[in-house]
Amino acid sequence: MIPWLRPGEPFPPVTKALTNPNGLLCAGGELSPERLVEAYTHGIFPWYSEGDPILWWSPDPRMVLLPEELKVSRSLRKTVARGTYETRFDTAFGRVMEECASPREGQMGTWILPEMVAAYTRLHVRGFAHSVESWLDGELVGGLYGIQLGEAFFGESMFSRETDASKVALVALVTRLRESGCRVIDCQQATNHLASLGGREIPRARFVQLLRESIQYPPSGSRWT
């Protein structure tokens, strides 16, 4: 059994998370900006399907991308250099979330539910959630969104309608974060795609320690322009 969060109740220690399923910590609570900032600060994120209660996770190990370890292939480097896509920040946050929530081949449903879109949009208004967008001939063709708290960025999801459009957005994100002194990008769970871009797994304890070193509490938000 996992604990049920009541309004205003703090999260359990992440060391209490289950090993099967890996990282399931607790259920319940709410998706207020305050609750979400508290969660991410402690290495916890919400992830659940339609019809389920809010489920909170903190898997061990944790997939991260250190900004200085991004791997950019030769072909992607050429695409970036050619300027095939125009990169923008925070100009279409809602649309990026909607695109990320769209059904994908081989995927049943989505975890980016309407209440999640509303919750992260509130974070965006407060300057905590951000989008990076790839545009082609005035059309949004790729992008990603996530949350920045201090010197940590928490990637949530990405989408691509054209070849390498989401990867170009990722390169732009990492370049911006590296220049601003970001120490770690949280990728949550391991995938071969993220590993090919330089992501790697680290112990949850090390990840939580990185967050302590990277986030001054309470963090402040700012718009990316």
TrEMBL record:
InterPro entries per record: Acyl_CoA_acyltransferase (IPR016181), Leu/Phe-tRNA_Trfase (IPR004616), Leu/Phe-tRNA_Trfase_C (IPR042203), Leu/Phe-tRNA_Trfase_N (IPR042221)
Places the protein is found: Cytoplasm
Annotated catalysed reactions: N-terminal L-arginyl-[protein] + L-leucyl-tRNA(Leu) = N-terminal L-leucyl-L-arginyl-[protein] + tRNA(Leu) + H(+); N-terminal L-lysyl-[protein] + L-leucyl-tRNA(Leu) = N-terminal L-leucyl-L-lysyl-[protein] + tRNA(Leu) + H(+); L-phenylalanyl-tRNA(Phe) + an N-terminal L-alpha-aminoacyl-[protein] = an N-terminal L-phenylalanyl-L-alpha-aminoacyl-[protein] + tRNA(Phe)
Keywords: Acyltransferase, Cytoplasm, Transferase
A Gene Ontology BP annotation from the UniProt entry: protein catabolic process
HAMAP family with a match to the protein in the record: Leu_Phe_trans
Protein name (database record): Leucyl/phenylalanyl-tRNA--protein transferase
Organism: Usitatibacter rugosus
Gene: aat
